[in-house]
């Protein structure tokens, strides 16, 4: 595992920055689709779960999203944050603080692995979900009050050890792409349904029928699209999406 650090540097410098340019004035839905945000939420949830598992192991109740995991184990930093853009020039164009801080923390974690730290080696892939999120273009994250802000829904800015009790999320490309396809499929069904209420569609995961339920709220009409199979597809769509 001696080369974790150099692999991580290479990985960060290979992130396609086009996802992150000129996004500050854009609305969430203009940056990514609802399906992509759903897959992003899975990656964030899995990152929180892995951090939770480590927190339980080192007996710490919770940490900020900005906290580097290596600092929980090894108090002295290996790298200087001021040098981050020299190490990873690819990050120069990305104007996202959390993104950069997490990349830095990931590099520090890899330094700890390369030093042969047993805990870092045991949890060597703790940063995998969040780096994968950045690689897939979902790194537009900021913090407002106590929450992470993005199109992926609400996550607290502090990660609790209890997250480690959750079941592991499948973050393989196949699983994430299936999540995106399911949303696109439901959106296409809803579009057809709004045009003709007799249109039917089946779940792409289990082939059972999808049901639509309409709900009125102050923000407009919401549609709950649900697979007849319990605990299968179930998501809410706003009519706003189809304007
Ligand atoms: Zn289903």
Polypeptide structure, described:
The longest helix has 25 residues, at 34-58. With 243 residues, this protein is α+β, with helices and mostly antiparallel strands. It has helices at residues 4-13, 28-31, 34-58, 70-73, 84-87, 97-114, 118-122, 128-135, 173-195, and strands at 62-64, 142-144, 147-149, 155-156, 158-160, 210-217, 220-227, 234-238. It folds into two domains: 4-165, no CATH class; 173-242, no CATH class. Helices cover 42% and strands 14% of the residues. α3 (34-58) runs antiparallel to α8. Strands 2-3-4 form a three-stranded antiparallel beta sheet, with no helix packed on it. It has a three-stranded antiparallel beta sheet with strand order 6-7-8, covered by helices on one side. A two-stranded antiparallel sheet has the order 1-5. It binds zinc ion. Zinc ion binds at residues 203, 205-206, 208, 227, 229, 232-233.
Approximate helicity band: 40-55%
* Strand elements, count: 8
Compute the CA-based radius of gyration.
20 Å
**What's the overall geometry?**
elongated
The N- and C-terminal alpha carbons lie at a distance of 51 Å
**What bound compounds does this protein have?**
zinc ion
Placed side by side, the strands forming the largest sheet appear as 2-3-4
Low-confidence stretches: none
Q: How many domains would you count in the coordinates?
A: 2
Determine the strand fraction and express it as a percent band.
Answer: 5-15%
Largest sheet: 3 strands, antiparallel
- The average pLDDT score comes to 93
> Which class do the helix and strand fractions yield?
alpha+beta
**Number of helical elements:** 9
**H-E string:** HHHEHHHHHEEEEHEEE
């Amino acid at each position: 595992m001696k080369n974790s650090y150099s692999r991580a540097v290479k990985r960060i410098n290979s992130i396609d920055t086009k996802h992150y340019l000129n996004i500050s004035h854009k609305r969430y839905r203009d940056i990514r689709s609802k399906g992509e945000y759903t897959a992003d939420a899975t990656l964030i949830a899995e990152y929180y779960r892995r951090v939770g598992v480590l927190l339980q192991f080192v007996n710490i109740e919770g940490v900020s999203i900005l906290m580097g995991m290596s600092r929980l184990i090894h108090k002295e930093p290996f790298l200087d944050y001021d040098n981050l853009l020299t190490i990873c020039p690819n990050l120069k164009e990305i104007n996202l603080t959390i993104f950069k801080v997490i990349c830095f923390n990931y590099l520090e974690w890899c330094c700890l692995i390369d030093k042969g730290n047993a805990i870092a080696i045991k949890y060597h892939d703790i940063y995998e979900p969040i780096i994968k999120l950045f690689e897939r273009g979902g790194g537009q994250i900021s913090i407002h009050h106590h929450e992470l802000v993005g199109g992926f829904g609400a996550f607290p800015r502090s990660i609790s050890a209890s997250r480690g009790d959750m079941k592991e999320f499948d973050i393989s490309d196949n699983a994430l792409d299936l999540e995106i396809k399911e949303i696109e499929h439901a959106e296409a069904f809803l579009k057809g349904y709004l045009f003709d209420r007799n249109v039917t569609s089946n779940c792409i995961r289990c082939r059972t029928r999808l049901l639509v339920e309409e709900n009125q709220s102050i923000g407009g009409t919401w549609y709950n699209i649900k697979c007849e199979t319990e605990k299968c597809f179930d998501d809410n769509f706003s009519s706003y999406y189809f304007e």
